[in-house]
């Protein structure tokens, strides 16, 4: 292909883009520079760039020059479901069991995260079941300054999360996903072996500036959190 | 509190909502039914429900009755970043190394996912490094019917993912997050011990109806994928 035809120039520039000469989103040379480099007219370069723009390789702005098409950000709308919904959507019967519940000083890292200082907080362990098999194990601390009524709450059939969702408006949260090794007690409760790899979700929620609750979910081996992008 | 005042009725209904008598989003009884149950006027019930609506416990629609406020869906805009960006955003120097690359028949599960049938596919192993320390290990299969030019591609400094992003428009993908146990080869490459719990991301992408690539990333112990909701 002749490097001076608009097709030839299009292919030459395409090859340079694919080879990584410029970062995604980076400005590439202008018509004048390419015309000089390929010893052709600006019109020819313009036609080549226009063709690359039409096939989505580059983006052209009237005054902004031409950029390598930035990464088409694969973004996911990741909805954090209620465990009850997750289980019921998969056709299972949901139930939860409170394994431990007490009022205590939180460990330092938790006290800092919940901003409870020297004050006691509510601690709750819940085993979530799908068709009576362990679905997830939850440990949760609740800031009693933010939700004093939790201390006396009768959760009944509700999980602590469902109770909180009904009681405290949600403003914002932080989530961290990671992997953890199953240790004695958690391995037992999830019915798995010590040392198994567990998918783990940490979540802290705030009401305005006040931390309300921080929790960790451990899922049994084999759990997958799936979503579309 | 007198159960026949609007305040008393408001508190009574609130307690029933918090106790889980109705599902989130579920229709609760109408004014007529509550008025009968609490032996008061519809106006009084109306005032009570209005107050609950104002504080966000319920939602009222002119003709649709009153529902328990549905779950304020905690939704995350989870962006799937390029590994290069993840590393550079954290202030590290990014580099990647191709550990293995060949053309071969994919294992059955992969061949089915990529719809490659009996045809060979490209296989690639890449170690992603941050400041020369293992950041993630990637195994990837590429459908050569969808991206024939990959067979001969000179990746240079680019990761396969970056090359693909530049070459093939992205239409949709599926992601699954899970935890896996580090096995011999992967443990070695990530510089961790066998049996460690590794955060794992599987991703398959399509161009229109054609599967392009499917990959798995293993992150070393301690990695956390964090986002806000």
UniProtKB/TrEMBL annotation, chains A, B:
SUPFAM superfamilies: Chorismate lyase-like (SSF64288), Winged helix' DNA-binding domain (SSF46785). Keywords: DNA-binding, Transcription, Transcription regulation. SMART domains: HTH_GNTR, UTRA. Residues 3-71 form the HTH gntR-type domain. The keyword DNA-binding applies. It holds the Pfam family GntR. PROSITE patterns: HTH_GNTR. InterPro entries: Bact_HTH_transcr_reg, Chorismate_lyase_/UTRA_dom_sf, Tscrpt_reg_HTH_GntR, UTRA, WH-like_DNA-bd_sf, WH_DNA-bd_sf. Transmembrane segments: none annotated. This is UTRA domain-containing protein. The lineage of its organism: Bacteria, Pseudomonadati, Pseudomonadota, Alphaproteobacteria, Sphingomonadales.
